[in-house]
């Protein structure tokens, strides 16, 4: 599906020193909007495939995607010599109001039309393929016409994009709706995976939140293991966006993900493991 393989991690300046010591890392992802006119040296020196990950295109909006934001994503892709870029199946603004969060798109045919139109416009402006990520949603729209699996399959059929399968988001959505995560995951278009996300979360007020600032639950790691045992071996990466743990904890998470994905560990040569 893509040139990506192996274990990856979301590159953030706060953990750049740890990432620089990882041996055998397959790729990195970086928030596209965080990249200025010059790529961070600590990122480019890794000499790895780098995927710009957009968070602001709002492709699920019924408004036409902002051409300037597409141009910026294309610029970052070229700057980093990226093999692909990725964004979310979501919207973040309506009118002049910025939500500040990824909001779920109604799973309707009308929303599919708008999303497919914006993806087509975006794809025409990019120098590399676009992959789209399933998000964690705390609610469903009352006028949903399709299941998440049906919606994603239809979107991929219409646009030809690949899927960034966020396994933690599948877990979150299933847990909050009282469903079985593995059953829900199998209903997604798994033959179109570009790569996978793994991230942590926590329960607040009885609801599971995909925070990216908490440890990865063992249940999410086991969901990855089930995917691996089913015969699928996509590239997988860890996302962490704050409350960075001590290096040893972060490396242990990477080792657990590598084990679940039947990949070689990447932390063995770091100073924290050697000491």
TrEMBL record:
It comes from the Bacteria. SUPFAM superfamilies: Xylose isomerase-like. InterPro entries: MbnB/TglH/ChrH, Xyl_isomerase-like_sf. Transmembrane segments: none annotated. Pfam families: MbnB_TglH_ChrH (PF05114). NCBIfam families: PRK05409.1 (NF003818). This is DUF692 domain-containing protein. It comes from Rhodococcus sovatensis. The lineage of its organism: Bacteria, Bacillati, Actinomycetota, Actinomycetes, Mycobacteriales.
